[in-house]
Amino acid sequence: MATVAEITTAEQLFQNPGLGRCELLRGELVLMSPSGSLHAIIAATLGGILFEHVKQRKLGWVFGSEGGFQIGRDPDTVRAPDVAFVSADRMPDVVPQGFFQGPPDLAVEVLSPNDRASEVLAKVSDWLEAGCRKVWVVDPEMRSIAVYAPKAEMQVLHHSDTLVDEDVLSGFKLEIRKIFPA
What we know:
The protein is an alpha+beta fold. It has a single domain (35-179), classed as tt1808, chain A (Alpha-Beta Complex). The protein has helices at residues 10-14, 37-57, 117-130, and strands at 22-25, 28-31, 60-63, 69-72, 77-79, 83-87, 100-101, 106-110, 134-139, 144-148, 155-158, 162-165, 172-175. The longest helix has 21 residues, at 37-57. It is globular.
């Protein structure tokens, strides 16, 4: 296995799966601690809801947190959202063994207690600049979802609201309260 300092490209990162959860940010490896239980439950719940919606309508594929997306080259950037969606028309005929080339259509980031606002906003910016059509940032503490889209104002939906997404996830409606444990 390569040392952490030697991993500066997407290919090197993919060839070293024993590192655990990490991302490559402009050629620098960023190790990530395992998330807590609340984070994991919310991400799995939301992933399941998205999976069922996407599968029923044959819209594309939903990715879990282990899927990486290469969104930059020279220096390489590989990000791994907690949940992601790629539309069917963007999926290759054969699912790649390595990282997906390009951004997902939707990236979902679930906040952890130790996340810094500047780091989360940097991720949102990276996703949107790479061509992601929507980014959802789920805040377990506030029981809310912030929705980001290119050239649009950020929208915050709270526990009692319903998220409606017609442009990325045709026909998608989600009562925000359903993703948070009681």
